[in-house]
Amino acid sequence: MTVPQTLQQFLLGELKDHPERYELVMMMADIATIGKLISARTNRAGLTELTGLAGSTNVQDETQAKLDIYANDLCKNYLRKTGLFAAMASEEETDVVDLKNPGARYVIAFDPLDGSSNIDVNIPIGTIFSVHKKLEGVPAGDARQFFQKGRDQVLAGYVLYGSSTMLVFSWGEGVHAFTLDVDLGEFLLSDAHLKIPAAHPYYSFNEAYGPFIAEEDRRYLDKIRAQTGSLRYVGSFVADIHRNLIKGGAYVYPAIDTSGQGNFKPKLRLNYEAKPMALLAEQAGGVALADGVAILDIVPNELHQRVSVRIGNKKLMKEAS
Ligand code: FDP
Questions:
Q1: Which of 118, 237, 304 to mutate to test the pocket of ligand 1 (most atoms within 8 A of CB)?
Q2: The pTM is what?
Q3: What angle do CA 188, 191, 196 make, to 5 degrees?
């Protein structure tokens, strides 16, 4: 009989081997708790009047769901109390939030509830996070704290609220995946070193945008379609990436021009969507590109900067480009 390893045991093991990771270990424990709290809320959303829109919009003019706001407030208040973070950036906050922890050595970017248009219909959603060291000589609340390239992330990952809740993260030595045992209230180790399989059955692209993408993306997608064969698109970034990490394939969200004026615009956000997923993809043996460049090498110059995204199996993506 195999005995499952709890997240706590895994983290204590890490601490023993890497005492210098003390703060990162503490963060992971805190983020796991946040994940459990949001998971419990999302499971009860329909029962606690937490579905539906809040009647507000965020900085990107997207309508905010009640659970978006709950998750954002929870992340903000909980992380402030940990004392580990100097500042937080969030999809739901216009500016950087100074967490007023003067001695803190890290900053964190969050998408508190990714895929929020799926909340009301019981489709997987998630929380994505990306941690950097705080830049010395730059005020905590300054957006420049988040103008750091993805390769300098010290920790990144997501919590997926799906048919089960999973925590997937990396601090640069592989990807570790845990599944929440709701009865125990514990995350249990599912995969200590998750690797994208060589097979690549799926491509993920919102086909409704077919007429609105650039010619180069059209050619790329034709090749990807031919080499994968099956379309899977949830419309929650975290769920689509999770599936492709486990099953293999390519996720493609190119820049879109619906105006017909050649004004192509990407959608996904660099700091709290593309960068963390790129770290996980590379650590799992895959590749993550934006306009031919490794996403992890892009230095953001705006807090809510958007990028085109291609994430998936290395060989598949190389052959299609
Ligand atoms: P949502 O708008 O529901 O919050 O970036 C947010 C995101 O979802 C991703 O989670 C998702 O992959 C993508 O947008 C879906 O966009 P489209 O509806 O344009 O396909």
A1: 237
A2: 0.94
A3: 145
